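New to this. Explain the following:
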Amino acid sequence: MANKAHLRDWHNSIAEQCVKRLQRSLTEEETKFITSHIGFMALEAIEDSVKTLSISALEELLNSKTDE
């Protein structure tokens, strides 16, 4: 597992990419979706999705519920 600083930076990077793609601020739920994932593979998948999904599919992903 990544250290806390690296994890925080990765979460922030993904959120910034989302903001650029969506051209708006993220909602609390969307931010929570990103920060609820801490595993390398999950974050890689989310980051890849941010770059490749359509805007509507990205919004759907960010608003999907996670198992807490």
Remarks:
- The helical segments are 4-22, 28-35, 40-52, 55-62.
- The chain has a mean pLDDT of 93.
- The first helix runs from residue 4 to 22.
- The chain has four helices and no strands.
